[in-house]
Write a structure and sequence with these properties.
The chain folds into 2 domains: about 260 residues, Spore Coat Polysaccharide Biosynthesis Protein SpsA, Chain A; about 80 residues, Hexapeptide repeat proteins (UDP N-Acetylglucosamine Acyltransferase, domain 1, 3 Solenoid), CATH 2.160.10.10. It is of the alpha/beta class.
Length: about 375
């Protein structure tokens, strides 16, 4: 796997603006103590990829604070390791659609590597892919490129690219319908490709003023390239809306799904480590089928919910079917059901808040905006 150079595009539109419009999408908390970027980054390093470039978004403070030097992912190295590829002033002042321009501006990072392959991915999907198997599949098919896809099972996911393959696993069509259907093969926005082919393709697309690598390069040149599809059958969840984020979070309360995602063989999901005390349950606490992170203090009822680090649940408060992010304070006698509360939130004593799985009630962080 040392033959592979890793590149992760973190400059994605934020479909979770109702929760927090300022935080980068890839830095959104997930499953208590993790962030969305942890899953893609962990899959890279668990496969032995030791050089990873990150195309960072405009508002990257929380992302960089989370990843830092990459120590938790074993990427704090003298040679290779983690490289931040930030936006320049032109990208900030005149943003453009797609990823071709961003890739072309970081061509030096791609060219100076002596690796044979490039693994390029977005962070819009929660997964635990074994990329060693993807490389084996890629070599067996003598492929120029291998696109990872999964079968759609979550009806909450509306958007995405649909992959069509023939009996030999070769991709015959890569489309982008207005709405995907259950049973479609959904592209996971991850591709293993010959590095020289990737460089040539990006330079060609940039010269033609094209926008998207997946749509304008791969999708439009399936006859010229040997592009195959690898069917990932493990747990995955594409996050393209607040309901999809809520559904993916609630999925993890099923112990089988949780183990499938976090303990896929020897593969693990890594995250920033914080030294905190274990959760504390007071006399009035009653917790069932929930994930409670370190540092929480619970003096109420928590059912079918996820509590991030250092959440305080007041006396006689009831939290059901909800996602409470770190440092939130839930007042005494409050009632929450179907709620997503952003970090540092404060729910007043006696408050009654209710949402549904199709339309969770989002308690966003207060911010003055023009």
């Amino acid at each position: 796997m040392n033959e592979i150079l890793g590149l992760i595009n973190m400059r994605e539109d934020n479909p979770l603006k109702k929760i927090n419009a300022n935080r980068p999408f890839v830095a959104m908390p997930f499953a208590g103590k993790y962030r969305l970027c942890d899953f893609t980054l962990s899959a890279f390093v668990d496969a032995g990829i030791n050089t990873v470039g990150l195309l960072t978004p405009i508002e990257a403070r929380s992302l960089m604070d989370h990843i830092r030097s990459g120590k938790e992912w074993n990427l704090a190295r003298k040679m290779g390791g983690l490289l931040y590829l930030p936006m320049d002033s032109e990208d900030v002042m005149e943003p453009v659609k797609g990823d071709i321009k961003a890739l072309h501006k970081n061509m030096a990072f791609l060219k100076r590597s002596g690796r044979q392959y490039l693994l390029y991915s977005y962070c819009d999907t929660v997964h635990n892919i074994d990329y060693e198997r993807v490389l084996e599949f890629h070599r067996q098919h003598n492929a120029d490129a291998t696109v990872v896809f999964t079968n759609k099972v979550n009806k909450q996911v509306k958007k995405g690219r649909v992959v069509t393959t023939d009996e030999d696993d070769r991709i015959t069509e890569l489309s982008k319908p207005k709405e995907t259907a259950v049973g479609d093969n959904i592209c996971m926005s991850a591709i293993l490709i010959d590095r020289h082919i990737f460089i040539d393709a990006v330079e060609y697309a940039f010269a033609k003023d094209e926008e998207s690598f997946f749509d304008d390069v791969i999708g439009q040149h399936l006859d010229n390239l040997r592009v195959f599809g690898y069917n990932y059958t493990g747990y995955s969840a594409r996050i393209d809306s607040v309901p999809a984020y809520y559904k993916a979070s609630m999925d993890l309360l099923d112990i089988k799904t949780w183990r499938n995602l976090f303990f896929n063989g020897e593969l693990r999901i890594h995250t920033k480590i914080l030294d905190e005390a274990p959760a504390k349950y007071l006399a009035g606490a009653m917790v069932a089928n929930s994930m409670v992170a370190n540092g929480c203090i619970v003096d109420g009822t928590v059912e079918n919910s996820i509590l991030s680090r250092q959440v305080k649940v007041g006396r006689n408060a009831v939290i059901r079917n909800s996602i409470i992010m770190q440092n939130c304070v839930i007042g005494d006698d409050a009632r929450l059901d179907g709620v997503i509360c952003d970090k540092n939130g404060a729910i007043q004593a006696g408050a009654v808040l209710k949402g549904t799985p199709e339309k969770p009630l989002c308690i966003a962080k207060f911010a003055l905006r023009d």
